[in-house]
Amino acid sequence: MEEAAAGDQSNLSGVQHVMLVLSGKGGVGKSTITTELALSLRHAGKKVGILDVDLCGPSIPRMFKVQDSDVHQCDSGWVPVFVDQERSISLMSIGFLLEKPDDAVVWRGPKKNALIKQFVADVAWGELDFLIVDTPPGTSDEHISTVEALRPYKPLGAILVTTPQAVAVGDVRRELTFCKKMGLRVLGIVENMSGFVCPHCSECTNIFSKGGGEELAKYAGVPFLGSVPLDPQLGQSLEEGRDFIREFPQSSAFPALAHIAQQVLDSASQRSS
Fold first, then answer.
1. Of 30, 190, 257, 271, which is most buried with the most CB atoms under 10 A?
2. Strand spans (E) along 71-175
């Protein structure tokens, strides 16, 4: 990142690359892809932050098993929550700011937008290789506010997540239009929940049809980053806040997730060179 573009005193001046995880559809696994991408980048030796701007459904704290953590203040703003002693992954989410985990965020647009701007400006991330921004579904106020607030920091781009079926692909097509209108580069499309590989016979059953994400990538002229199959071990890891990348390298989802992370690293190195 060109630090001069955003000012030397910014809390994001120590962040090398910012990227967003988007989808026009809810329930396609944006937070799953965000979590596993962060873990994959950590295993590649990178320091990663996750900014969770899904204000109505913050699931990132739970996926890292730090949902009971509190956010503290420092001279330069909010201190993010670290998931390990090495401080290799740090998180910020509205989930840490709610008095009770079941509290609903019943806010109109202006209040949501103000918090997003505060998240971007006031979190003391320190030195990071990557900041991944996990977003809610759609192309609404929150997305516009997030992209506009991050624009001075020249984001690396956006990863779009879909599932294979036509209704999800149609919604993600609208997200592509949003990226184009906002001048946000698309790093590529990920097809999540792409078939179920039987753990006993290794046969793949395409529960939600097949290939919609790859077809959309060809249609839009953007990279297809890969297909991530449904995997019970992945679901269990997220439920229990475990490190899937470290614990299940033999899983059917592991090669796809590792390949997505490698393509992100390649995009970052091309930009830096």
1. 190
2. 72-74, 77-79, 81-82, 89-93, 128-134, 157-162
